[in-house]
Design brief:
By secondary structure, the chain is of the alpha+beta class. The protein has one domain: 2-Layer Sandwich (STM4215-like), CATH 3.30.2000.20. Helix content is about 25%, strand content about 40%. It contains three helices and nine strands; from the N terminus they run ααβββββαββββ. The strands form two sheets. Strands 3, 4, 5, 6, 7, 8 and 9 form a seven-stranded mixed beta sheet that branches. Strand 8 (about 115-120) and strand 9 form a beta hairpin.
């Protein structure tokens, strides 16, 4: 089993949504511009100046057996509490009670949103926990 399948599912869903991408900073690699969506528990050092981004990482263990359920957190970072809540609602709507496909296997997503919190740099973040269930 691919231990990162959940991040692949989430990246596919979130990066395909134009209104969500419009709320995020962008960065350029070569000549290609990307929305600020990262699969990492720590933001890359060369992207520390961004203030509007999504950070995806797994927070649960991967279970044994033929049924798998993992939890990922999508941290929403925005300059204001209001913007943070708006983006969190968008992520929630895209990932709550959704069936999708990963390599021919059906997966089911359920989400919950925590409250906005200010960090040490006076930016806001909201964690959205997404439980991904599958029979992998």
């Amino acid at each position: 089993m691919d231990l990162r399948y959940g991040s692949t599912v989430l990246m596919t869903i979130l990066s395909a949504n134009a209104p969500l991408k419009a709320k995020l900073d962008t960065f350029t690699v070569g000549t290609t511009e990307y929305p600020a969506i990262f699969v990492a528990s720590v933001l890359p050092e060369n992207r520390q100046d961004l203030t509007k981004y999504l950070q995806i990482y797994r927070v649960s263990q991967v279970g044994a057996g033929d049924f798998n359920e993992v939890v990922y957190t999508v941290n929403i970072r925005q300059p204001t509490e209001y913007e943070c809540d708006v983006v969190a609602k968008m992520v929630y709507d895209l990932t709550n009670r959704i069936f999708t496909d990963y390599s021919g296997v059906s997966v089911y997503l359920r989400s919950s949103v925590a409250r906005a919190i200010m960090d040490a740099e006076n930016n806001w973040f909201v964690p959205v926990d997404i439980r991904i269930s599958s029979k992998l």
